[in-house]
Amino acid sequence: MKFPRVKQVMGRLLRVGSVGTNHVPARAAWIAQTLRNIPSGQRILDAGAGELQFKKHCTGTGRVL
């Protein structure tokens, strides 16, 4: 990086390396709960489902991929 001082300050402010890594469990719990709250028989479109890690929470839905 051309500006080592900026990198140093940003590292202290943002704790580079941990930014965005602590939200995964909360996000997963929110997604699972939200999917469980979808009424049985409703259809959802899971655009960008990727590896289908939340498929197990969609048992009562008509899931459209």
Tell me how many strands there are. 2
Number of helices: 2
Please state the overall shape, judged from the principal axes of the Cα atoms: elongated
Find the structural class using helix and strand composition.
alpha+beta
- Helix share bin: 25-40%
Distance between the termini: 42 Å
As a percent range, the share of strand residues is: 5-15%
Word description of this protein:
With 65 residues, the protein is of the alpha+beta class. The protein has two helices and two strands; from the N terminus they run H-H-E-E. It is elongated. The mean pLDDT is 75.
Keywords:
65 residues, 2 helices, alpha+beta, two-stranded parallel sheet
Q: How is the topology of this model organized?
A:
Layout: H1 4-14, H2 24-36, E1 43-45, E2 62-64
Parallel strand pairs: 1-2
Précis, in short:
The protein is an alpha+beta fold. It is built from two helices and two strands.
